[in-house]
Specification:
2 domains, Helix Hairpins, rod-shaped, mainly alpha
Length: 661
């Protein structure tokens, strides 16, 4: 599987094409091999047919020479005069047969060479009268048998005997086997009968042989007729070609066989002329040979037709296979090209998008699966362009806004630190004020106690009243200072609340990353509200204290004017001093609360300073992330890249920056 994953599509298609070619080439090769084998067999059969015809001619001439030799040896001068011409013709026929066999059947040609030597010896012996009629007949019969054997061997060697066509088989049986055997039977009867008629006597054994030959002649005649009928059934065109020869063969063969019966087998005495018997048998044999020749010629035409048909079939098959192979190669190349080119185009488009290049133009594509893939990729690129442009613009705006927010946070951090320093100074002043108020309360208690003991010291009490009046003036001034300080604290609380509100708004715009900061801003806002409420309460106490101090001051002034009446109203003075002591204790308690509030406000301010520093760090981080986003988006290239511009910060960010500044 890993090897297949590493192979390119063209290589995979090449492997599939090779497998398909192998799958089709094997049966096609077997078919072509079978057809070529059949064509070679048909060629061999066609080349063997002339040799078979020459062998048939040699058999017929040998049979004729056998009969003439029998007549010559029997003393018939007429037949002896006709023998030399047949002898010479037979010699030429054997020579032609040897030449034919030399090219198609060398083994049979060698056997024919030995047969020719025997033939030369036999014809010389007949010419010299060195053989008896019986010996001549036996030796001629051997020659004919050997020639027929060579014909059978050539039939098997050429493949004609194993032909699959029924018409061809029937013609081979009739023309090359049964009809030659019929002529042989007739030839032997002609030779034996001619010799007997020439001598004027028929030996009993010769009569028995003639009867046997007569029976076999009938058998071969019937067999040849049946074979020719089968051939005509499978090839109706043969009926017209063989009709006249077949009719002549039937008539003459019947006449020859009747003459054998009437002139020899059934005759009481041999009065039939030998020449007439020889001519009649020869006429029948010639009719059989004519039919065999005609059938052999038809067989040759059938074999040639089969050979031509096989050649045409082989040529058509080869041409069709070559055309189909060429068409398959062209179609395979076109198919592979139609698949690999769009796939390559899709890969190039995907690589361009992966590298951030979205500026390519859409290319034409097909409507198949690969075309749909390319169309989907082009749609993806087209939809990515506005998204990337929008993200780029937004990231640049966020980067700019975060930079300005970070700068504003840094400024806010500095001012918060200054505010924290001022609060520390206020806390120190409040501690001093608290000490003064505590001292006033202690003095008031002592005054209340001394009032009862120093009634008689009224005069000195007047001085003390004046001192009290001065002290009350100081307290009045300190109360005014406390009111101013509380007003400053209330303003700081209001500004802190406003800053916490703005920070909460910005944290809400930051989303998930600003959630923690929003919580801290809410806490700061709550503390600022509590600080403002405490400052309002302290302001009310101080205003009440100022009112009481003013009242005490007026009473002290009245006491100074009416010091003379102090002694009488000392009891009342004691009560008033008690009230003053109570008020001083309340003032001490209020001042202590104001000190605690200022201390808490100082802590809140310190926390605010820390939070502002955290906000500044977060803004710096956000700015860094925005810059990273800008750099990441800058990888993409769109067609509108040249028209891109730096966008300003969003309006809400500008408002927040202005509020911080």
């Amino acid at each position: 599987m890993r090897l297949l994953d590493r192979l390119r599509l063209s290589h995979k298609f090449l492997i599939l094409g090779g497998l398909a070619l192998a799958m089709t080439a094997l049966p096609a090769g077997l078919q072509l091999h079978g057809m070529s084998t059949q064509l070679r067999a048909l060629n061999a059969q066609a080349r063997a047919m002339p040799a078979l015809q020459q062998l048939g001619q040699a058999v017929r001439l040998t049979q004729v020479h056998r009969g003439l030799s029998a007549g010559q040896l029997g003393g018939d001068a007429q037949l002896a005069g006709r023998r030399p011409a047949v002898r010479d013709e037979l010699g030429r026929a054997l020579q032609a047969t040897a030449e034919q066999l030399a090219s198609v059947a060398p083994t049979q040609a060698t056997a024919l060479g030995a047969l020719r030597q025997d033939w030369q010896a036999l014809q010389q012996a007949v010419s010299d009268g060195a053989v008896t009629p019986a010996q001549s007949l036996a030796r001629h019969n051997q020659l004919v048998a050997r020639l027929l054997g060579l014909s059978d061997q050539l039939l098997h060697a050429s493949g004609l005997s194993t032909s699959e066509r029924r018409d061809t088989q029937a013609l081979i049986q009739a023309a090359l086997q049964q009809l030659p055997q019929l002529t042989e039977q007739l030839g032997q009867m002609r030779a034996m009968g001619t010799g007997a008629l020439a001598r004027g006597e028929l030996a009993p054994e010769t009569r028995g042989l003639l009867r046997a030959l007569r029976a076999r002649a009938d058998e071969f005649d019937a067999g040849s007729q049946a074979s020719l009928q089968r051939a005509q059934q499978h090839a109706p065109a043969l009926q017209g070609e063989l009709a006249s020869a077949l009719a002549s063969e039937k008539t003459r063969t019947a006449e020859a066989l009747r003459l054998v019966d009437d002139g020899l087998l059934n005759a009481d005495s041999l009065r039939l002329p030998a020449g007439q018997y020889f001519d009649t048998l020869t006429s029948g044999i010639e009719a059989v040979n004519a039919l065999a020749t005609q059938a052999t010629q038809q067989l040759l035409e059938l074999v040639q037709q089969q050979d031509a048909a096989a050649q045409r079939a082989l040529w058509l098959m080869g041409t069709a296979l070559a055309a189909l192979a060429t068409l398959a190669l062209l179609l395979a190349a076109a198919f592979v090209r139609s698949i690999t080119q769009p796939v390559h185009q899709a890969v190039q488009l995907a690589r361009a998008v992966a590298q951030g290049d979205l500026s390519g133009a859409d290319q034409p594509h097909g409507s198949n699966e690969v075309g749909e893939l390319i169309a989907a990729q082009q749609q993806m690129r087209a939809r990515l362009r506005p998204i990337v442009a929008q993200v780029r613009s937004g990231s640049e705006g966020v980067a700019l806004a975060s930079s300005e927010i970070a700068q504003g946070n840094h400024d806010l951090s500095g001012r918060t630190e200054a505010q924290a320093s001022a609060l520390e100074q206020t806390a120190a002043s409040m501690e001093q004020l608290s000490a003064t108020v505590q001292n006033n309360a202690h003095t008031a208690r002592e005054a209340s106690q001394l009032a009862e003991d120093t009634r008689e010291l009224a005069r000195q009490g007047g001085a003390n009243v004046e001192q009290v009046v001065d002290t009350m003036h100081g307290v009045h001034q300190a109360a005014r200072q406390m009111a101013d300080i509380i007003q400053v604290i209330d303003g700081i609380a209001f500004q802190t609340n406003l800053l916490a509100l703005n920070a909460a708004v910005e944290a809400a715009r930051a989303g998930e990353q600003g959630r923690g900061f929003a919580v801290v801003a809410g806490e700061v806002r709550n503390l600022a509200g509590r600080s403002g409420e405490a400052a309002k309460q302290i302001r009310g106490l101080i205003e009440a204290s100022n009112a009481r101090v003013s009242a005490g001051n007026q009473q002290a002034e009245a006491a100074g004017r009416t010091m003379a009446e102090v002694v009488a109203s000392m009891q009342r003075l004691n009560a008033l001093v008690g009230q003053i002591s109570t008020a001083s204790q309340e003032q001490a308690s209020g001042v202590a609360q104001v000190g605690e509030a200022v201390t808490a406000l100082d802590q809140v301010t310190q926390q605010n300073a820390a939070l502002v520093e955290q906000m500044a760090a977060a803004a710096d981080g956000l700015s860094s992330q925005a810059q990273g986003l800008v750099q990441a988006v800058a990888v993409f290239r769109t067609a509108e890249e040249g028209h891109a511009r730096r966008l300003p910060a969003p309006p809400r960010a500008q408002q927040l920056i202005a509020a911080i500044a």
